[in-house]
């Protein structure tokens, strides 16, 4: 069953190279639970966006497909949430580093403004998102030897993700037979720009932390020493002000 999906949903070369790292990320039960609960939120948000897409399209068959897609994303959210809670109840503890940059799951619609896109560009974007998600879920199913129940959840969801990946591509070919390649390239460029923004934000966060650390440990200590030396020169107890404050004004 798993193998038949893996043939169609192929993990990216980058993810395959990092497979041992993925195995380690998913090995910890508490981290697994946190990740599944976060995936549930993303899937539910994607479902809401697709309901909105179904509302605004004028194409009846696309509306039906978007509605089905929205229902399935909501079902994925329920499956992830249920399994995440089961894992949490078995392994209570502190939340651990989730390594979301490495194993982000399905990215949802990545803050895509549904109303600002035509059906064609939305289908192109959805196709690429679903393809990436299907590849990642196939990989997660492969590395979850330690937890067959969670693996079953991924295999079940993978079946739907492969359908999403295929129907979006077919519908794009139907609606834009001549421009399908262009739409896919535009969607790819948009995803690349968002990936750059994510990387730039992460880098800015690291540099910000580094700069604050340098200020705290390198720039502040001399001032603290000077303040200590100044405090030692002060006489103990109450002392009259060196320059008496005039009583006619506040300062
Ligand atoms: Fe999904
Ligand atoms: Fe999906």
Low-pLDDT parts are: 1-7
Distance between the termini: 82 Å
CATH topology: Ferritin
Largest sheet: none
Bound molecules: fe (ii) ion
Beta percentage is under 5%
Tell me the number of strands.
0
Q: Quick gist of this model?
A:
This protein is an all-alpha fold and about 250 residues long. It has a single domain (about 1-180), classed as Ferritin, core subunit, four-helix bundle (Ferritin). It has helices at about 1-10, 15, 20-25, 30-55, 60-90, 120-145, 150-175, 180-235.
Can you describe this structure?
The chain is mainly alpha-helical and 251 residues long. The protein has one domain (2-180): Ferritin. It is 75% helix and 0% strand. The protein is built from eight helices and no strands. It has helices at 2-8, 13-17, 19-27, 29-56, 60-90, 119-143, 148-175, 180-233. The radius of gyration is 27 Å and the shape is elongated. The termini are far apart. Residues 1-7 have low confidence and may be disordered. The structure holds fe (ii) ion (2 copies). One fe (ii) ion binds next to α5 and α7. One fe (ii) ion binds next to α6 and α7.
Could you give the topology of this structure?
Layout: H1 2-8, H2 13-17, H3 19-27, H4 29-56, H5 60-90, H6 119-143, H7 148-175, H8 180-233
The structure holds fe (ii) ion (2 copies).
Residues 43, 73, 76, 106, 157, 161 line the site of one fe (ii) ion.
Key traits:
251 residues, mainly alpha, 0% strand, disordered N terminus, binds fe (ii) ion
